[in-house]
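YM 10:42: Basal-body rod modification protein FlgD sequence, as discussed on the call
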Amino acid sequence: MDTVSGGGALDSLRWQQESYKVADKDDGMLTQEDFFALLTKELSYQDPTKPVENNEMISQMTAFSTTDGVTQLNEQFTNFASSMSSGQALQASSLVGRSVMVEDNSFTLVGDEEVKGKLVTDEPASNVVIYVENAAGERVQTVPVGSVAAGESAFTWDGKESSGYAAPAGEYRFRIAGIVDGKSTELSAMTYRKVDSVTLAGAGGSILLNLNGGSSMALSDVVEVSEG
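YM 10:58: structure's back
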């Protein structure tokens, strides 16, 4: 009997196995190209009498698409967060040399200067008086205001004591009292602080404004910005 040698028509009937190489990734993540290469490899080895169910194949593709989508979303969010941080840093740097308002009645007097602030009341108030106190709690100046409407009212202290002399540098605070609805009430005060410099990576990675007098505050705590 004649022996049939390999080649010719019989060779064309053999399974042609294709080789696939998963692209090297520094992060070890599979791309869509890698996934479909592995899927094709899996199909080439399956039992022809028991092919992979459509549902199973769709499930694998859906799982990969979901994972790939989450990865892309994470990358987009990282880029967005980086962009936001850069924008905040630029915004903060533009505040150097300007004054910002904070919800605090304490402030630092550096030299012979005026100090600006705002008093806040939810209802109209009468007989309003602003007291300026030093770090020891001693009253150095009293400024009568009179009646104010509900909301915010701006005021300025000239930096001088009751004697008329300039107050020494140091820590001070505004204490504001008035009559609201027939009762003696202490009103809230906000003050302006001048920004000397900016720390771009402070505690917790937040952007800090370094104020005159050595104190600092988070950029997110700024209520208002003034030119001077």
